[in-house]
Amino acid sequence: MSTKILDRCETMGLRVTGQRRIVAEVLEAADDHPDVETIHARAAARDPGISVATVYRTVKLFEESGLLERREFGDGRARYEDAKRDHHDHLIDMQTGAVIEFVDPEIEALQERIARRLGYDLKGHRLELFGTKRN
Amino acid sequence: MSTKILDRCETMGLRVTGQRRIVAEVLEAADDHPDVETIHARAAARDPGISVATVYRTVKLFEESGLLERREFGDGRARYEDAKRDHHDHLIDMQTGAVIEFVDPEIEALQERIARRLGYDLKGHRLELFGTKRN
DNA sequence: ATATGTGCAAATGGTTTGCGTCAGC
DNA sequence: GCTGACGCAAACCATTTGCACATAT
């Protein structure tokens, strides 16, 4: 399967509209973690007529279809990124809002180990690990 | 310093009102992670006249004073817990909303190590670690 | 041709705030 | 008594939704 969001969109049998094409391409090109307002701004640069409501509907659809992943970093708005990127986690500076991406195999093991330690059944569920550290 | 929220509230020089006393006691007694609506419900059981606005103002004040810690688990509402409890982190089941508390010294080291690896200055900042795992 | 997507504006849900009144110190 | 807290209702902000019209297939 192609790595492009738009192609996966078609593969999923979703209708390909002008707006969806643009939202897909915006997120394809993004190397950050844009919120809906930002996605809309970037999309509007290509099609000034696109509405925020459509962006909201589109990212929600894409997320439910597994094309995008929704992130919530505690600032009240959702952020999105291409689901097909290599797996990674995030470290957020709550003072500055800076987002640090990283990959650490230990986290994966840790999550599974902790859940297992507590007798928790993992099948089909998504687990989010929230760790806090004050310095 | 006493371990009771109310005492720390006084120590901080905050005015002790009937409502603040109740909110402090509600969170003192809580062994879960109540959101504002829940805190208000529990508080209203003692003083039916207490308003949600006051609960919002109080938990915010307490958080800024370091008496409480605010948590956001991705469901759109903030949750609070006593800041003086032993340090721990959280694992959330995004399907059921189940909150699993755990302590794991590796997470601490991991957070510091990752930030350091990236040349990030930690001083005075609070870092949140967000890890995702699908099963 | 028909089912589905879009834009607009109104509605929602959590949280904040202005204002007049009340209470802690 | 003065400063700050409370209750109420309106305001806010991110997100969702109803409806009339437009468009992909």
Automatic annotation (TrEMBL), chains A, B:
This is Ferric uptake regulation protein. InterPro entries: FUR, Fur_C, WH-like_DNA-bd_sf, WH_DNA-bd_sf. The keyword Nucleotide-binding does not apply. Its cofactor is Mn(2+); Fe(2+). Keywords: Cytoplasm, DNA-binding, Iron, Metal-binding, Repressor, Transcription, Transcription regulation, Zinc. It is found in: Cytoplasm. The lineage of its organism: Bacteria, Pseudomonadati, Pseudomonadota, Alphaproteobacteria, Rhodobacterales. Transmembrane segments: none annotated. It holds the Pfam family FUR. Binds 1 Mn(2+) or Fe(2+) ion per subunit. The keyword Cytoplasm applies. GO terms for molecular function: DNA-binding transcription factor activity; transcription cis-regulatory region binding; zinc ion binding. GO terms for cellular component: cytosol.
